[in-house]
Amino acid sequence: MPPTGDTASDRVLLITGASSGIGAETARQAAEAGYRLVLAARSEDRLADLAESLGGPDRAIAVRCDVQEWSDQEAMVKAALDAFGKVDAVFANAGVGVMPGFQAESPEAWRDMILTNVYGAALTIRASMDALRESKGHLVLTGSVAGRIVYPGSIYSCTKWAITAMGEAARRELQGSGVRVTLIEPGVVDTPFFPEPEPITVEAEDIARGVIYALAQPDHVDVNEIVIRPTAQAE
Predict the structure, then answer these.
(1) Residue 97 class from Cβ within 10 Å (0-12 exposed, 13-18 middle, 19+ buried)?
(2) pLDDT tens digits, residue range 131-183?
(3) I need a surface site. Which of 14, 112, 124, 208 has the fewest CB within 10 A?
(4) What's the sign of the alpha-carbon dihedral 215, 219, 224, 226?
């Protein structure tokens, strides 16, 4: 059920990294629950197709956003407010990964990942914080099981440890504002994130259900962390 005092059809959810994988599946499930959607990513064509499939401009808008760019993030939130008048929830989901190993990838690939996964998420919080305070809304961040344990040579894991800390830092700053903060921590997921198929996975739809669950709790309930692993995943 939607949070008390409101209905899902009145609520606006903004998703970064919305063009594929967990972001796109969360958009589909949120649309089914009645949310209006602001879909943001760098992939404009896929975004536009997804927005149209979820009801078009009255129900879902597509906004090109490179989360590494502050001006894009500001424009994204402005587009949400211009279209729907408010933002009730933000899912900071944009992220990329590289191969583990301190010598396995180029420094440029590291830089792009760190700027997307860490700096980009921080900018999303900064850009949306006033709107979330106004709506007494909900901030959701995509962390990872990799942000709870350390994988050998994984700079990606380091970025997700940063997200674990960022979620708690945001929760503490927003304490007393009515804004809730949830960290979603997937294990191995069958999404385009992985260049090769993984033998043990959960599906993007499984993670999306976790996001919708957190959003659906009554306003006085803040689900701070949800870890979702495949049953057979050891770590």
Answers:
(1) buried
(2) 999 999 999 999 999 999 988 999 999 999 999 999 999 999 999 999 999 99
(3) 112
(4) negative
End-to-end CA distance of the chain: 32
Who contacts 14 (Cβ-Cβ below 8 Å, separation ≥6)?
37, 38, 40, 76, 77, 80, 87, 89, 90, 91, 128
* List 119, 151, 156, 213, catalytic entry: 156
156 given a catalytic annotation:
yes
Cα separation values, 91 from 61, 113, 128, 186, 194, Å: 15, 18, 10, 14, 21
What does the block give as tokens for 75? 């424009």
Pairing outcome for strands 180-186 and 138-142: parallel
* Residue 210 to residue 170: CA distance in whole angstroms: 20
CATH of domain 8-228: 3.40.50.720
Q: pTM of the full predicted structure?
A: 0.91
